[in-house]
Amino acid sequence: MGYQVLARKYRPQRFGDVAGQDHVTRTLLNALQQNRIAHGYIFSGHRGIGKTTIARILAQALNCGESIGSERRPTPEPCGLCDACVEIRQGNAVDVIEIDAATNRGIDEIRELRDAARYSPARDRYKIYILDEAHQITEAAFNALLKTLEEPPAHVVFMMATTEPENIPQTIRSRCQHFSFHAVKFDDILTQLKTIAAEENVAAEDEALALLAEAGDGSMRDALSIMDQAIASAPLEDGRPRLEASQIRDLMGSVPTTVFERLLEAVAAAQSVPLMEQLNGLLNAGHSPLSLARQMVRYLRNALMAKLGGEQTELLAISADERARAARTAMLFSEEELTRNLQIVLRTFDDLNYRQEQRFHLELGLLKLIHAQRLLPVEELLSRIAGGGLALPASPGEAPRANASSAFGGARPSTATANAPARPSGGWSPTPAARPGASSASGAGTGRAHSQENAVASRPSPAAGEHLSAARERSPFPAVGAQAQSYAAAEARTEGSLAVAPRAEPAPIAAPHSGAMPGVDAIRLAIAEALAAAGHSSAAQLLENGTWRLESTSVHVAVPGLGKKMIDLTVNADAQKIIRQELQRLGAPARFLVAPGEGKAAGASVAAAPLAPSGAAQEAALAHPLVRRAQEIFKAEIRSVVDLRQS
């Protein structure tokens, strides 16, 4: 006999040899032991996971010449030695008829099958019909088979294998036992590939076998087919084929995941030029944009799963090296950023399927990852207003453009232009035509606001103090009322001028720290100064009032008097990046953890006002002038209100 491919050579011949379908094999073995044989079975599931294989094994077990419990057949497994088992395995059994329903799908073929089913089997116990791709049978043909399935002869068993069980009529499914097969787990495929490599005398790297198992995507047959092709193209070493990871990647047209790790490092650092240069090298090497986008989607998904469950989570069906790489990438982004990046790349991948210039759309999609780093959630924007004025975030790699107190009319010194236009009565800022070169901020349907290129400052009027006290009295939120000065100053002005703050030059990058690790007080002071300099004064004050603890691998801060949600809003993703950079500069542990602590926050009053119910809090929030002003500025929509004082 000539060469036989691995998928056929190592096809399971016993229920115990089938990988990943224990729920099916266990049920069928118990049914055989109890002699509870159904007249119709439907095996459905992913391609290449053992549907037709189990149908053949069940046919052998039903027609096996040895009785269960005998010396040659102690268990319900087929003996594999009798004439019936051998003929079924070779595919020439008279009483086991395999029909390709994709080509024999009409009513005439089914009528012939129905007529032949009335006759007794030639030799064996059962006449068995295995219908592969059963969902291809026409509706009229299914109707012709319906009566036979409802009241079949005692010697007939129907087995239908399909990848689309929803296309089989419900009247047919209700008359059969339906077994839904699972995709084979990554570990089961990897174990089988290692066993076959040893049997075939193939020297294979663990990473190469892991790539083959991952390429199988839950299908054992697909993994074996790719392995067959890889062995044929593998170089010989001492007369043995040797499988290497680089060879497998070349064979499948994929790139190493280290490439995507470097791409996402450039995204995290907001380095557009290195990102485009690396992508240009990949495209010039012959990799298609569609393939690169597909692989990047998979890598981002793995990084997100590593962020959610850690490096050893079961959500990652990849090798140990790939797990470590995904975990390193996950440390560069927050969970929200990884989710957003995955959504952007998925949308880019969809666009590539029907776009003409695929390269341009892939480049645009990767640049969007960098631009998305500058987005700010509206809820975080409102928390900044409540915490000390609107501090618009600077773009990555740039110094803060304006002080937080100046964004809503604080006392930032500025020089007004001589011919500045008067402020319109119904708006907060002039129209783009009146202020050329300045970009606008928007927070409508998306719930996001872009950082502005220029900050607009205003000069408060003498009546600001009177409006401040009134705003404090009518504010239902102590935190907002305490910080209402900047808003009151902006509201109180009747005449004034507009000044545009000059764009700050990028701050120089500090040299890495060398020497012994600094103490916890030095770390706290350095981080507070860095946050304050970057416009995160609320986060700096919050962390400075916390209790710090320095360990060998991490820095812990316990903040009293605040819930986790409020802490996350204050110490946001931008602040965390600044903290990580400062820890790296100081040579301190890179892991930084902030959690609620026991006790009362600094500056909290002794007699706190009772908490308002959620309904009253929502009404008060919607009626608050700060919220109304934010709605006017960003054309925003308030969908939900969370009372953070209750957390």
Mean pLDDT: 77
The CATH superfamily of the largest domain bears the name P-loop containing nucleotide triphosphate hydrolases
Which band does the percent of strand residues land in?
5-15%
Poorly predicted tracts of residues: 391-514, 600-614
- Main pleated-sheet profile: 5 strands, parallel
Alpha carbon gap, first and last residue: 74 Å
Q: In CATH, what is the class of the largest domain?
A: Alpha Beta
So, CATH architecture of the largest domain? 3-Layer(aba) Sandwich
Number of strands: 15
- What is the CATH fold-level name of the largest domain? Rossmann fold
Helix segment tally: 27
Shape: elongated
User: What is the gyration radius calculated from CA atoms?
Assistant: 34 Å
Number of domains: 5
Q: Identify the strand order in the major beta sheet.
A: 2-3-4-1-5
Estimated helix fraction: 40-55%
Class from secondary-structure proportions:
alpha/beta
What does this structure look like?
This protein is of the alpha/beta class. It has 5 domains: 6-180, P-loop containing nucleotide triphosphate hydrolases (Rossmann fold); 186-252, Helicase, Ruva Protein, domain 3 (Orthogonal Bundle); 257-374, Zinc Finger, Delta Prime, domain 3 (Up-down Bundle); 389-416 and 441-502 and 611-641, no CATH class; 520-597, Alpha-Beta Plaits (2-Layer Sandwich), CATH 3.30.70. Helices cover 46% and strands 10% of the residues. A 5-stranded parallel beta sheet has the order 2-3-4-1-5, with helices on one face. Strands 6-8-7 form a 3-stranded mixed beta sheet. It is elongated, with a radius of gyration of 34 Å. 34% of the residues are buried.
